[in-house]
Amino acid sequence: MQHSGPGTRCAACAVCAAPPVASGEASDSGAPFGLNPCARSSYACGVSDAPHPLLEFYLASASGRFPEVDGTLRVLPALAAGLEASIGFTGHALVCTALEPAAVHAQGVDAFGGSLGPAFLCWLAGDGGRIGSLDVTLVGRGRGQGRLPRRHDLEEHPRVRLARGQRHDVEVYGDERGLVTLSNGLAGRRELSIEVVSDEQGRGHGRALLGDALGLVPAREPVFAAVAAGNARSLRAFLALGFVPIGCEVLLRPRRDAVSKPDSAPF
Question: How far is residue 88 from each of residues 92, 107, 209, 242, measured CA to CA in Å?
Answer without folding.
Answer: 6, 16, 29, 21
